[in-house]
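Thread title: Can someone regenerate the structure for this chain?

I was given the following input by a collaborator and told the matching structure tokens would be attached. They weren't. Posting the sequence so someone can regenerate them.
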Amino acid sequence: MFNLIKKNKRLIIKGVLKLKIIIILFGFFFSSLTLAEPTFIADFDISSDEASATGITFKPDGTKMYITGIGADRILQYNLTTAFDITSATLEKSVLIRDEENKPEDVKFNSDGTVIFILGTNNDGIDRWSLSTPYDIGSITVADTLFTSIGGDPRGLAFNNDGTKMFILNQTNTRVEEYNLSTPYNPDTKTLTNTLTNATSGNFHQGLGFNADGSKMFVVKSRGNSNADNKIDEYALSTAFDISSSSATLTGTFSPTHSNAEKISGIAFDSSGTKMYHINWGDDEVREYSLTCPFKVTSSSTCDTPLKNKDVRGVVDAQINTAKNFANDSSQSALKRLTILRANKGYNTNAQKVELLFQNELFNKISNNVSSSAPTKLNPLHQIQKSLPENWAAWTEGSIRFGKIGDSSLSSAQDMDSLGITVGADKIDNDKIVGVALRVGYSDVDVGTFGSAVDTNALSLSVYGSNSLDNRNFLKHVFGVSYLDTNILRVYEGQSVKNAGSRKGKQAFGSLNFGREYEYSRNFDAIITPTARIDGSYTTLDSYTESGSASSALSFNKQHIRSLMASLGVLIDRDYNLENSTLKSRVNLEYGKEFASDSHVITKYVTDDEAFDYRANQKDLNILTAGLGFDFVYDQGLTIRTDYQRQKIFGKGFINELFLSIGFISRKKTEFALGLDEDMTSNFKISKALDDFDLGFNLENDFSNQENYDANLSLSSKF
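Best answer:
Regenerated them for you:
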């Protein structure tokens, strides 16, 4: 009997466990389905302003909301202190339009907010007014309306992104109508091109909208006292903003799950597509919902690919460009050093008395880890020089890069600023040059116009060399590895939705530079050097997941970036002998072609399992580089090298670069210091001891604003 009871208990326990597992699995499955539907967030009472609201829209940045309706016959403008948050709304302006339209059904703007459109059923048409201040209805003169007849008891209005198409929700014929506009945003120039039947059954049409790129369309149906009869139909459009039967497919229907009986009208989304809004004209309220991913309104539809968002692609492209640029800068820094050594035959090319400052967190960490036994005023370069054998020389180079990759149909523009410093050491042995270089860089790329950014700290270690110092034929080479630490921020219009992430990266790079020097002495003395160069890099970026707004947050798989480039160019050098010094000038022109470059990007929303991928960095790039530089070599030991070059990336944009290298062998009591900080500000100081006096010169310049500069000359003495 005892054993039987134990068995029965085990049976009971197993039965309970199975039941719990089933319940858990069912609950998980059910919750995953409910996550696919819009989730109610908040409502906003407008009953004191409009008793029967019908239409809703927002200013693109989410700081203004506009309502119209058939109760007050007004256009209402609300100010939102928090973008796209209806609970922060307060009525700002109200314009009575009853004399022109006493049954307004929908409200829309043109792309820049200088024209407002009101669709109405009084005369079954569209009234439009010009606004002297964009998105400000206070500038409306009601009598100055322009009217276009539409017919068909219209209940919804929408435009495509450039205003060349207009869409009307025709209640009489229960269909959506597509018109071409020969003049953008001018309904008078309409031509009917397509219709799409959207049947009603005891309800009526009351709103029309699209997602950002026109691949989805939403039709609102309304009826009193039953949530089931209040619906939003979602269509997938295989061709953007094309409602023809070959393009449009009904993917699902959403009915509000609010506790109150809904009577819905109008539809709008925030700039990220992760929030949806409609009006409940029964309770005179605006409803706000969150979506599991952009523009996914029905459970049977799919998420909009994030790669349609230009800032998403812009952020991806910025990471690719940053990685390639840092590899290139690391190689070029060492190659320029080899050029200096060849030009000066190794004379006066070290920098053992020059202080080079770089205000960057990563560089400061390196500085703190260098031996601290030397005096505190010495920077790492001084300490390196002191520890080097006599036949080795230390050197430094600072560079500033700024430029712009233009906006395209797929990717947002990139404004790039970067700073870099290289500390190196090399020796000349039997006419051959060998060296090692450490480069620290900081890059700031602003993407688009809403605040998205990619900030990268990078560190590289490379070895370099040349087969000969004196031979006219030469082969220069650089090989190295890099470490990248990147912070990424994506901001949607209105800055109400932000997502951030960080990732690490590793990189290998190399460069081979071939050339031959020719002396020219006909009209002037110069050295002409044709060159050929091959640059390559391979970068691996870690996977990462964004934080912030969950419905728009993305995760990215590990990413590999391959780059290979071949270049042909010519360099012309001339020397000018001055009293106690020599000025060397050079001009270079180079054509490069990037080929065999590729990066496979795989991403998905954190709230959804569907993965999206595309091949980035595939397009061959043609790059033309022109540069001008000078070397100032002072007999007392000072060498200053400056270079400016501009890259024209055909079909993309441009990049400007400034380089500054300083070398000094101290023969008198003179000190030099160069500072570069992340705010694009440089600081150059010279101090010289003259018997009992100290002579100082300080030059400060802001590269981001050429109006900000300062120069000071001082003479002091201690008594």
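The longest strand covers residues 581-605.
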